[in-house]
Amino acid sequence: MQEQKVYPFLLFDGAATEAMRLYEEALGAEVLSVLHYGPGSGAEGKVMHAIFRLKGELVMCADDLMQSGHRFSPALSLFVSCDSDDEIERAVELLAQDGNVMMSLGPLKELGQFAWVEDRFGVSWQLNVPPAEQDDENH
Questions:
Q1: Residues 55 and 94 in one domain
Q2: How many other C-beta atoms are found inside a 10 Å radius of the C-beta of residue 105?
């Protein structure tokens, strides 16, 4: 297996820990490492750097201490191939809480079941269950 050389990096407005918890619950992400700012830093307890695994891929994140006020944009999204209809339904339900459903869950030609959701942190998720997985599940 080749080492991953490009990593999505998410910069949160102080909510990196909360976001990773949501991704654990909604998508089965596994938090691998978290480095927090220590005492006297002015940001004690905030995430300096973290890595989580999602569907075998590594994603990095941190809290934005510069308070840049940036927002994520749906122009860049994380596309996740789910393993079942149950998984995508759960992910859409959890990610959409206090977020925004940009495209409701439903069949989409060659993509199979598909939904596009922006979570409450502003991260955009394109979720699908490819047709082959649906066929296997339903037979």
A1: no
A2: 21
* Helix ranges, the chain (H): 16-27, 85-96, 131-138
Question: What percent of the chain shows pLDDT beyond 70?
Answer: 94
| Sheet containing 124-129, strands listed edge to edge, beginning at the edge strand earlier in sequence | 77-81, 124-129, 112-118, 100-108
Q: Which tens digits make up the pLDDT trace of 97-121? A: 999 999 999 999 888 999 999 999 9
Q: How confident is the model at residue 52 (pLDDT cuts 50, 70, 90)?
A: very high
CA angle 84, 7, 55 (to 5 degrees): 15
Residue 35 is part of which domain span?
A: 9-63
Neighbours of 63 (CB within 10 A): 23
Q: What share of the chain is helix, strand, coil (3-state, %, to 5)?
A: 25, 40, 35
Q: Let me know whether 59 and 94 are in one domain.
A: no
Give backbone dihedrals phi and psi of 60, rounded to 5 degrees, phi first.
-105, 155
Asked if 128 and 112 count as a contact pair (C-beta separation under 8 A), the reply is yes
